[in-house]
Amino acid sequence: MNVIELEDRAPSHAEAAKIRELYNEGQLDEAAIISIMRAEKPHKQAHFKLPQEKISRFFAADTPAKIITQTIIKALELWQSKNQ
Asked: Exposed, middle or buried by CB within 10 Å (0-12, 13-18, 19+), for 28?
């Protein structure tokens, strides 16, 4: 099993570029890959999926996906601001 598999995800574009840069410089090793893959990503947003049956309890069937997404994001932002 390689390091990328251990991280259970493919590297992002920025991570892949850094890995390629270190490889080209002859400085790539397992520790470098782990460091890149586990580095704090300040602009990274959490992603999650809501099951359709849960969404349909709160929105009409003809509600556009964009409106649903905006509403959920706003609700999460409000929740986060109250819980900080």
From this structure: middle
pLDDT for the residue 22: 93
* CA-CA-CA-CA torsion sign (56, 60, 62, 63): negative
Distance from C-alpha of 36 to C-alpha of 13, rounded to nearest angstrom = 12
* Residue spans of the chain under pLDDT 50: 1
**9 vs 18: CA distance, rounded Å:** 16
Count other C-beta atoms under 10 Å from residue 45's C-beta.
6
- Which backbone phi and psi does 53 adopt, to 5 degrees? -65, -30
Domain ranges of the chain: 3-38, 52-82
